[in-house]
Design brief:
With 280 residues, the chain is an alpha/beta fold. The chain is built from six helices and twelve strands. Strands 4-3-7-1-2-6-5 form a seven-stranded antiparallel beta sheet. The chain has a five-stranded parallel beta sheet with strand order 10-9-8-11-12, sandwiched between helices. The chain is globular, with a radius of gyration of 19 Å.
Length: 280
C-alpha cells in the first residue's frame, strides 16, 4: 500500500529570532497550515527552497495512487535548475489553529559553510517564502510505561529535545545530554518534568563519553537519540550493549552524515538503520 502524501503549504516568514550565535528561530505562517494535525513530539517536515529565491514549485500528488514514492520520482524528474532544494527539519512548535509553525535552524555565520537551508535561514527576512510538506512522524515512537526518559543529541536534535521535554508531565524524570559547539550555544529547556540537562562541548567522542558517564534515575528507560549518524549509532550501541536497555526502547534517527549531504545517496548503514527503525 502506498503511503499518502502529506499536505503542502507555501509559507511566509513572519518572525526571525536569533536564539544563539549558531541557531535562528523562524516563524512560518500560511492558511494551508490551519488545522494541520500534530503527529509526534519530534515531528518533521520537508522544507523546499527555490533556487531563484522565489516561490518553490513542487509536483502535485500523483493521480495513480503511487503516493510518496510516485511523488518523489516526479520531484526528481524536475530539471535540476528548477527543482527546489528539499531538506528535512524538526517542527519546534505548531499552532495549527493559527496556521503557524516554528522551526529552529542551525546556521554557520561568516563561515561560508552549510547547505541551502542553513544559507536561507541565515539571511531570511519577513515575507520570505518557503514550501512545507508535512508534518510526518520522525523517530520518537510513543513510549509505554517507562518512567525515565533519556534524550541524547547535538544541536540539530535540540528542537526535538525541547519539544519532547515540553510534553512530559510533572512527576516524570528525564535526562538530556546535548552536544553543542560551546557555552554560547546552550539554551534554556523548559519542562514540567524533573529534568537533568548535561551540556557537552564538541570534540571527538565527547557525546558518547558523556552518555557513558551520566547517571540515570532508577526505573526502566525510554531513550531517544538523534544527530550525526555515526554518533547516534555509537550511543545506541552503548545503551543496548553496555546499559542493557531493550532495543525496542531506543528510538534513534541520524539527522545528518559527516562528509555527506541529504542529496547524497544513502549508504548501506543508512539503509540498515532505516530498516530497523521501520520495524521498531
Amino acid at each position: 500500500m502506498s503511503q499518502e502524501l502529506p499536505g503542502y503549504a507555501v509559507c511566509r516568514v513572519t518572525g526571525v529570532e536569533p536564539l544563539t550565535p549558531r541557531m535562528r528561530r523562524i516563524t512560518l505562517e500560511s492558511d494551508d497550515l490551519v488545522g494541520v494535525v500534530e503527529v509526534a513530539p519530534d515531528q518533521q517536515v520537508k522544507l523546499f527552497f527555490a533556487r531563484d529565491g522565489g516561490i518553490p514549485e513542487i509536483p502535485p500528488p500523483p493521480e495513480d495512487g503511487s503516493g510518496v514514492a510516485g511523488w518523489y520520482a516526479r520531484y526528481l524528474a524536475v530539471p535540476e535548475d528548477r527543482r527546489p532544494w528539499m531538506r528535512s527539519y524538526t517542527v519546534r512548535a505548531l499552532a495549527a489553529a493559527a496556521g503557524r509553525m516554528t522551526v529552529d535552524f542551525v546556521v554557520h555565520p561568516d563561515s561560508g559553510h552549510g547547505g541551502p537551508a542553513s544559507r536561507w535561514a541565515a539571511r531570511a527576512g519577513i515575507g520570505d517564502v518557503v514550501g512545507v510538506l508535512g508534518p510526518a512522524i520522525a523517530g520518537y515512537r510513543m513510549p509505554s510505561d517507562e518512567p525515565v526518559r533519556l534524550l541524547v543529541g547535538d544541536e540539530t536534535a535540540l528542537p526535538a529535545i525541547g519539544a519532547i521535554l515540553e510534553t512530559l508531565p510533572a512527576g516524570m524524570c528525564a535526562v538530556a545530554v546535548v552536544e553543542v559547539s560551546g557555552p554560547a550555544e546552550e539554551q534554556t529547556l523548559a519542562s514540567a518534568a524533573g529534568v537533568d540537562v548535561h551540556w557537552v562541548h564538541r570534540g571527538t567522542g565527547v557525546l558518547l563519553e558523556a552518555v557513558r558517564e551520566v547517571r540515570l534515575p532508577d526505573g526502566p528507560v525510554f531513550a531517544w537519540v538523534a544527530g550525526e549518524a555515526s554518533a547516534v549509532r555509537a550511543v545506541r550501541r552503548h545503551l543496548v550493549d553496555e546499559r542493557g536497555i531493550d532495543r525496542g526502547a531506543v528510538a534513534f534517527t541520524g539527522y545528518w552524515r559527516r562528509e555527506l549531504t541529504q542529496d547524497d545517496a544513502p549508504t548501506e548503514q543508512d539503509v540498515a538503520d532505516a530498516t530497523e527503525q521501520a520495524h521498531g
